[in-house]
């Protein structure tokens, strides 16, 4: 395969992986932006999303509704609705009662939630792997042949476009809508926003719901792309997305998008240059380098000490 | 006075409870079955547990060992080295003297240290890494062949049947996968076959797109994968989706119906080295039928090796009693008629003359032997 095809193939591979990191990273960054807490259960919310999608696909197929658009839409809608409910309940049960306590306490609660979700899914669904079929097999080939050319599979195109639409929708929502303005106000100063008549509890719940919904979108897309889910996929996905959020500047939504894409591309080319086993090393080295020179991340604002 | 009465009652109660637990211990011979009952490799644990449970049931039905019943207790190590050590310590605390397990080489290795220190006899029906029996432990045995046999079998098959110009070898950095991959590489190079690519992946990884792009660039005639089915399944599926049409080959840790569930049509035609098909051996027909009658699948590669391990252990206990040291001595010096053939152990505790067979895997989870 010629070098130029190889380069573009790795770029596309990196962008695909990066898009999904970005979708999950939004959940971390939005929650951090508003209540300054790292929701370590977010990776497991993503995992729950993929199981809901799996159950929806199996259920729809059993009912005989196995037409492609119904399957994809059904999985997506079911996953978004159920996973959002999870996101809301987790905040309500595990974080809200601890709102005014020491910062470390909700963090421990989040880790507990993560362990709980993993074990709950293991009990309910078994700890072995589950296979999700790829509903749209097939690919475009740019170049001479599959062996010598750039391959973009249909599912990759779906991942790009859905990620793009979700990001666009979120950006418009945050910058244009009334609720988005309330979100920004809360991110600026939670106490002040409350004094000015914004229902901050509702806004915080909303952030968790948005984060969970985007994680569900990522779960459906990644599930269909790779085809295998296990109860422990949330851990690695969560760590990678958290890295993406920190890389881009935690608290910043465009930062999470950029961080995700950068991380994906770094992994693809890192794997290419140093071997597949070193791709995580490359990704985390990049994180350390960026943080050395820009401690608040690429697009993050320097922390202002609140009085 | 009153206090004294209480004390004496307490003593009676203690003596009674002591007596009951003693009598229970005398009735049964406990054997720990250690392996993954949870986690992504559960299917293999089930094969192992099915084989050992079947053996225990049949031995008990035939009157047990020396008039005592065998009692198998399952311990879950999830194929995790840390959990395996915890399991080993639990076995020690429960005063069990015999272990059938563990499954993953990387779990068996640290657990074997504990067992050997505590005088517990261990027979693994499935861990194939050579290092496990290379530390001079007297109480460690296995009833399966070694990677140092399986690797060369695979490599010789590649050199003789595939006759490749260029081979790529990928492993998962774990003791089992890396050991096999290294053995395959060494044999291939000895036979003058070019190994153009030798690289590793991270266990648990989902995305191999970057690796596949590299494979396309390298363009090998065959790819050997040292590792387990979850990663190979994804690698096969993604290779097919990305138009990489190359022959893959894997070890017995990949020969599992879950591979087909993950990879689908992409698993068709994969080469796999597995222990011989004991369940299809005419001599084992009654036993295989007994498995099916008990609703257990006899076809996995570790079912009969586990069965044979229990059988040899029971026979040895029947002859020399329950002292692990003496049982080990007996296992070393004698041979046993088992469904996997005549089983005898060498000085290290490895089975003598164990053969692996190369199969073609099919997408429905079945396989055909390549003669």
Automatic annotation (TrEMBL), chain A:
<feature type="transmembrane region" description="Helical">
    <location>
        <begin position="45"/>
        <end position="64"/>
    </location>
</feature>
<dbReference type="GO" id="GO:0015192">
    <property type="term" value="F:L-phenylalanine transmembrane transporter activity"/>
</dbReference>
<keyword id="KW-1133">Transmembrane helix</keyword>
<dbReference type="InterPro" id="IPR001851">
    <property type="entry name" value="ABC_transp_permease"/>
</dbReference>
<keyword id="KW-0813">Transport</keyword>
<feature type="transmembrane region" description="Helical">
    <location>
        <begin position="70"/>
        <end position="90"/>
    </location>
</feature>
<dbReference type="GO" id="GO:0005304">
    <property type="term" value="F:L-valine transmembrane transporter activity"/>
</dbReference>
<dbReference type="GO" id="GO:0015190">
    <property type="term" value="F:L-leucine transmembrane transporter activity"/>
</dbReference>
<dbReference type="GO" id="GO:0015188">
    <property type="term" value="F:L-isoleucine transmembrane transporter activity"/>
</dbReference>
<comment type="similarity">
    <text>Belongs to the binding-protein-dependent transport system permease family. LivHM subfamily.</text>
</comment>
<feature type="transmembrane region" description="Helical">
    <location>
        <begin position="151"/>
        <end position="174"/>
    </location>
</feature>
<dbReference type="GO" id="GO:0005886">
    <property type="term" value="C:plasma membrane"/>
</dbReference>
<feature type="transmembrane region" description="Helical">
    <location>
        <begin position="20"/>
        <end position="38"/>
    </location>
</feature>
<keyword id="KW-0997">Cell inner membrane</keyword>
<dbReference type="GO" id="GO:0015808">
    <property type="term" value="P:L-alanine transport"/>
</dbReference>
<feature type="transmembrane region" description="Helical">
    <location>
        <begin position="102"/>
        <end position="121"/>
    </location>
</feature>
<keyword id="KW-0029">Amino-acid transport</keyword>
<keyword id="KW-0812">Transmembrane</keyword>
<feature type="transmembrane region" description="Helical">
    <location>
        <begin position="281"/>
        <end position="300"/>
    </location>
</feature>
<protein>
    <submittedName>
        <fullName>Branched-chain amino acid transport system permease protein</fullName>
    </submittedName>
</protein>
<feature type="transmembrane region" description="Helical">
    <location>
        <begin position="195"/>
        <end position="222"/>
    </location>
</feature>
<dbReference type="Pfam" id="PF02653">
    <property type="entry name" value="BPD_transp_2"/>
</dbReference>
TrEMBL record, chain B:
<keyword id="KW-0029">Amino-acid transport</keyword>
<protein>
    <submittedName>
        <fullName>Branched-chain amino acid transport system substrate-binding protein</fullName>
    </submittedName>
</protein>
<dbReference type="GO" id="GO:0006865">
    <property type="term" value="P:amino acid transport"/>
</dbReference>
<dbReference type="InterPro" id="IPR028081">
    <property type="entry name" value="Leu-bd"/>
</dbReference>
<keyword id="KW-0813">Transport</keyword>
<dbReference type="Pfam" id="PF13458">
    <property type="entry name" value="Peripla_BP_6"/>
</dbReference>
<feature type="signal peptide">
    <location>
        <begin position="1"/>
        <end position="25"/>
    </location>
</feature>
<feature type="domain" description="Leucine-binding protein">
    <location>
        <begin position="28"/>
        <end position="364"/>
    </location>
</feature>
<comment type="similarity">
    <text>Belongs to the leucine-binding protein family.</text>
</comment>
<dbReference type="InterPro" id="IPR028082">
    <property type="entry name" value="Peripla_BP_I"/>
</dbReference>
<dbReference type="InterPro" id="IPR000709">
    <property type="entry name" value="Leu_Ile_Val-bd"/>
</dbReference>
<keyword id="KW-0732">Signal</keyword>
